[in-house]
Amino acid sequence: MKPLKRYQYERYAVLCNLAYPRVFKQTRYGFDPNGQRIIKNQFGKTMIRVLWSKNSNEVVVVIKGSHSVTDWLLNFALWTRSCQKVGLYYRIHAGFYHLLFQESAPTRNEDKLGASVFERLETCLIPLTEQGKRITITGHSSGGAIGCVFADYFEQKYPKSIKRIVTFGQPAIGNWQFKRRYKLAHKTYRICCDLDIVTFMPPLPLLYWHSGKMLWLYNGKIYENTPSIIRFGRSIVSWVVRPFSYHLMSKYIRNKDFFDER
């Protein structure tokens, strides 16, 4: 697995953050004036942005996390559903399943009524891959989870089409069969910041599993593939001792810049 470069991390993190505002000017970030396709959810809200440039062979798919009351309620659908209908022989969180296969409101005249988010995204990406472009999928929270499932499907149907998957604050996705059969673990980076409680969700560890390389951003360092129980324990200890850490002289030295030269 190739390491994730700092500039790549920053680029995907910025794009994930900017996916939430209603208006997004893709040309400010190097994409073509016509290099954006919006995919909406069943309520007509922007859910996915597909971004590309004719001068780059990379297409970036940015998927939002939960951004409405309905989305948050779906997080409590803790049972699983099979993805066999799209050729994936594992089960995933029922809420994530709904996000993928809900009807997508049309955004263009040529969009067919009744198409799901899953189908709309595939239709958008096929002509881009036919131009020789490769797909990077990045998403925040549940957006990262459903991005992994779609990427797994797309890679199996269109081999070597997926460049990488980078997720931020992603919850666990599916059952043990998902972990065992997910084909893109070597291309998947899961970024977790400190004690992000969502990354421990759903709270059923033997039912739900992660896959891919986990990068934990903690205390100014990056830790790779730290087990969840250790990550949770270290975070709790950090919370307990943090008030005392402010008594250390190193804290006072670090804050010397608060004082003007006199």
From TrEMBL:
Alphabetical GO biological process terms: lipid metabolic process
Domain Fungal lipase-type residues, every copy: 60-204
Name of one Pfam family that matches: Lipase_3
Classification via SUPFAM superfamilies: alpha/beta-Hydrolases
PANTHER family listed in its UniProt record: ALPHA/BETA-HYDROLASES SUPERFAMILY PROTEIN (PTHR45856), FUNGAL LIPASE-LIKE DOMAIN-CONTAINING PROTEIN (PTHR45856:SF24)
Protein name per the record: Lipase
Organism the protein comes from: Vibrio astriarenae
